[in-house]
Amino acid sequence: MDTTDRDIINDLQGGFPLSERPYAEAAARLGLTEDELIRRLDDLLEKGALTRFAPMYHAERLGGALTLAAMKIPADEFERVAGIVNGFPEVAHNYAREHEFNMWFVLATETPQRINEVIGEIEKATGYRVYNMPKLEEFFVGLRFEA
Amino acid sequence: MSAATALRGQPADTAPALDALDRRIIVATQEGLPRVSRPYHAIAEQLGVSAGEVMARLQCMLDSGVIRRIGAVPNHYLLGYKANGMSVWNVPDERIRELGQKIGALDFVSHCYHRPRHLPGWPYNLFAMVHGRDRPEVEAKVAQIAELLGAADHGHTVLYSTRILKKTGLRIS
Questions:
Q1: Pairwise CA distance, residues A4 & A110, whole Å
Q2: What are the tens digits of pLDDT across the range B43-92?
Q3: Is A99 in Cβ contact with B159 (below 8 Å)?
Q4: In the listed set B64, B94, B121, which residue is the last one of a domain according to the structure?
Q5: Are residues B96 and B145 in the same domain?
Q6: Domain total for chain B?
Q7: CATH number of A59-134
């Protein structure tokens, strides 16, 4: 990754134009040609430095529901329970974390009612309590990763 | 609509009406924009509508917040941000909005949410995801948050992720 790649990553985390030739416009801002920008984006995606180049959709505003949930699982049960939890298609991400609450996952469902149903199903399938921690409010987020 | 109920009726998070064409545009673009000279024309052609219609719909979804932004999503691990600490804070409920906005505005905080406590085991009501190149960098940033909160910090901890057990994107079909 060279300085041009870094400029692209730093400049293009938002604000990609909605216009006939958006890559040409964004490229001009960066002092590149349209072809060069497209080629470099392809390359960054290929290398995995970018996971996507796309509109970021806001899940709840699409009518679905999201929540964060946590579980406290004894070490010798962890792999078994992780397998069961990951088997639910509604589990989008699941992370092991260093804490008594050691399993943290995001549930994404088509409807808000389904969140509670899935939580009940996971509790029944695993035998452990699921602590539901839905977001009550989201605060302004200022982060842009500097490459 | 239903999503509003899940979010306790916060008006800012009510789901705007999306029609079938909006949904087709979402499905066609959520994994990536075509990297061709006229990407919106390419999507329009695929969906059998005009490029103007595609751009107008996307603009409308941006304005209503259905789209947060359009652009590059960096892989923070590959950029060297290898430590990811979920810092969780016990702060007075009556000050949560003021404090949450302050912390959310810090440039090293990627997500900042008010979430429910589960007493007695889980006293924390404010979550702030902090990214750094390593744990000492995360810890220094957490100390900055603690300083900012001052006496409003009634206890905090940081949960580091040790393993990704599953990661599939959020998808609509």
A1: 40
A2: 999 999 999 999 999 999 999 889 989 999 888 777 777 788 999 999 99
A3: yes
A4: B64
A5: yes
A6: 2
A7: 3.30.70.3460
